[in-house]
Amino acid sequence: MISENGQTGFLKTDRGDGVVTLTIDRPARKNAMTQGMWREMAVLFHGLAGDASVRAVVLRGAGGDFCAGADIGEFETVRGNAQSARRYEAENSAAFAAIRDCPVPTIAAIGGICFGGGFGIATGCDIRIASTEALFSVPAAKLGLAYPVDAMADIVHAVGPQVAKYMTYSAARLDARAALDAGFLLEIVETGGLFARADELAATIAANAPLSIRASKASIRAVLSADPADAVHASTLGDITFESADYAEGRAAFREKRPARFRGC
After folding, report:
1. Alpha-carbon torsion angle 87, 90, 96, 97, nearest 10
2. What CA–CA distances, in Å, run from 115 to 67, 99, 240, 254?
3. Which residues contact 83 (CB under 8 A, 6 or more apart)?
4. 202 contacts 19 by C-beta, under 8 angstroms
5. At residue 46, what are phi and psi to the nearest 5 degrees?
6. Cα separation of 94 and 235, whole Å?
């Protein structure tokens, strides 16, 4: 359980009305992620996954940038040989998986730089919006590294195979318009309104029936993964909604022409 207005290292969390906002708070380094921050990210998301009061999560960066990716400045010590590089990648992938596997909707509010691991964080989210000046890149080819396979799957799902190939082969940068055209972004927002728009989306989601949304998220994952186990899980979550109090409340609210008050049970 993440405490209200809690702080863990460079990852700051705030909550209100079912929405948790997670801010990568290292603006002096353009919110680059250290090895410790990757570990913290996984721990935070595992905590969110087990918290029934959470209905949506917003990820954003402090100081104008979303995230510059992994902190290359520490690579000589934490990623200096093949063994340590494999260990680092495992922790990196664990953070991406924790975001991807979060049972509630996740929204990335992207301003400024969104590179490398930062791009991976964003692709793990369900919905992505960005400010007009946002830039996107996967520069692993300029470092002589390979991107984690599971995170590459997120990129392919987010932008399609051709753009994924272009970004990873060339390490080129995409601007917000190109990212929108590729299907990576839901919408582009003027810089000053980015966080307000993300909060608005999260509040809209949080007001709806959480069991229904969890079932929908699981069903979409099952379609993308084509994994029979994912399909069984999604079907189970869907079945739960039929006997839920929220289903009865939704019907009553419709009859009585009033907003529904969903409790997630």
Report:
1. -150
2. 7, 17, 39, 45
3. none
4. yes
5. -65, -35
6. 26
What angle in degrees, to the nearest 10, is found between the helix axes of 82-100 and 149-159? 40
CA angle 12, 55, 114 (to 5 degrees): 45
Mean pLDDT for the stretch of residues 182-206: 96
User: Rounded distance, CA 216 to CA 235, Å?
Assistant: 10
Q: In this model, does residue 131 exceed pLDDT 60?
A: yes
Q: Answer yes or no: is pLDDT of 23 > 80.
A: yes
Confidence at 202, pLDDT banded by 50, 70, 90: very high
SS (H, E, C) the chain: CCCCCCEECCEEEEEECCEEEEEECCHHHCCCECHHHHHHHHHHHHHHHCCCCCCEEEEEECCCCCECCECHHHHHHHCCCHHHHHHHHHHHHHHHHHHHCCCCCEEEEECCEEECHHHHHHHCCCEEEEECCCEEECCHHHHCCCCCHHHHHHHHHHHCHHHHHHHHHHCCCEEHHHHHHCCCCCEEECHHHHHHHHHHHHHHHHCCCHHHHHHHHHHHHHHHHCCHHHHHHHHHHHHHHHCCHHHHHHHHHHHHCCCCCCCCC
